[in-house]
Design brief:
Residues 258-331 form the S1 motif domain. This protein has seven helices and 15 strands. The protein is an alpha+beta fold and 387 residues long. The longest helix has 18 residues, at 97-114. The chain is flat. The chain starts with 6 loop residues before the first helix and ends in a 16-residue tail after the last helix.
């Protein structure tokens, strides 16, 4: 009769499905409340606070100038959680894999779906001169947008709230426009103009009375003055967000990944640095992977930001690919020449064995020597020979 306890959650869900209710007695097809407040942080280039139901997220954007064009993504997304927003409160709790995955998904959505031409919009050009007016068409650097999100309260729909906060903050973000000087690095010498730069979003044709059509993702609907008039978490008008996502690009990534796994070492670019490790983009693919701080060096590293920085080129080796998450290592590759120190993955296997801990592997007991023993006196075999 102990199995009757398993029927309690099933009966509860069956009751909710029949009455079309949720756990908080709200209607199953009722959308959560949605509010947006822009320019809530005076020191940020753009900021917004979004509330979806009881979930509340704060987003701030800062702009950094990079003299390189080799960055795979012009965004650096960082998501943090306050102790009050976590369902389980523990001291010295590391960053969860869900929060790490949320940062990667936000970066992927921004550069592939929401603003596919962001890299072109954030380029810095040389200042034109009378002697050479064609300099205005030459690129000398790029704006790098640091997007920091703070989860104030978590009641579900985190991706919905975070993406809405990022888009709202980007829509109001402004920064001084720079122009590079010929013969000098834009990171050292740059001319600040009187104009400002901002992100341009592609206009979406909507009717006067938007109707939710089908269950898709979410989308913010703006009026002609840029004010938010609607936010669809489930259904309606969001299919245009994915219009720029080409199936050919997905097939290319699927075909490139097995090829990357077969190679010994690969050159990578650091796109984001956290205390637990660094996210890098692999050359020849748009995929990103994580280099954990334990895989950076043979010496102990407590904070990855002390040894790595955004935009740095490193040599990495793919050591794992589980559930679409790529794990890489730097300590098995010579960072000067890019040569593989462990071509047969012997060191990686030994390290994985040490992580499993002593005593994890059960050594089988072998009795062949005892059973095959022959007594010289009684000619008996086996254990009886010892008595």
């Amino acid at each position: 009769m102990d199995d009757l306890g398993l029927l309690k959650p099933i009966c509860l869900f069956d009751k909710l499905f029949n009455h079309k209710l949720r756990l908080n007695d709200s209607v199953a097809n009722q959308f959560a409340g949605f509010t947006v407040s822009k320019d809530v942080i005076s020191t940020a280039a753009g900021s917004a606070m979004v509330t979806v139901g009881a979930t509340r997220v704060l987003c701030g954007i800062k702009v950094k100038v990079m003299p390189t064009l080799k960055l795979e993504s012009p965004f650096i997304c960082s998501v943090e959680q306050t102790n009050l927003s976590q369902r389980l409160l523990r001291t010295n709790k590391p960053v969860s894999k869900d929060i790490q995955s949320l940062s990667v998904q936000l970066d992927w959505i921004l550069r592939t779906c929401a603003i596919p031409d962001a890299k072109d919009q954030l380029q810095i050009y040389f200042a034109a001169t009378d002697a050479d007016p064609s300099l205005k068409k030459m690129v000398c650097g790029m704006y790098l947008l640091h997007i920091d999100l703070l989860i104030l309260h978590d009641d579900g729909c985190l991706l919905d709230a975070c993406l809405a906060a990022v888009l709202a903050a980007l829509s109001c973000a402004e920064w001084s426009r720079l122009e590079g000087k010929a013969g000098a690095s834009v990171g050292q010498v740059a001319t600040q103009t009187m104009n400002t730069s901002k992100m341009n979003f592609q206009e979406v044709a909507t009717s006067q009375s938007p109707v939710r059509l089908h269950a898709t993702l979410f989308h913010i609907i703006l009026d002609s003055e840029g004010a938010i008039v609607d936010f669809a978490m489930v259904g309606g008008l969001s299919s245009c967000l994915w219009a720029h996502l080409e199936e050919a690009g997905i097939c290319h990534n699927r075909a490139v990944l097995p090829e990357l796994l077969d190679r010994a070492a690969k050159q990578c670019d650091v796109v984001s640095v956290k205390d637990f490790g660094a996210f890098v983009t692999i050359e020849g693919s748009t995929r990103q992977g994580l280099v954990h701080r334990s895989q950076i060096s043979n010496h102990r590293i407590d904070d990855a930001s002390e040894v790595l920085e955004v935009g740095e080129e490193v040599f990495c080796k793919i050591i794992s690919d589980e559930d679409g998450k790529i794990g890489l290592s730097m300590k098995f590759v010579n960072q000067t020449s890019g040569d593989d120190k462990d071509p047969n993955n012997v060191l990686a296997a030994q390290q994985a064995k040490r992580r499993s801990g002593p005593g994890r592997e059960q050594v089988p007991i072998r009795l062949e020597a005892e059973l095959n023993t022959l007594c010289t006196r009684c000619k008996g075999k086996g254990r009886w020979t010892f008595f």
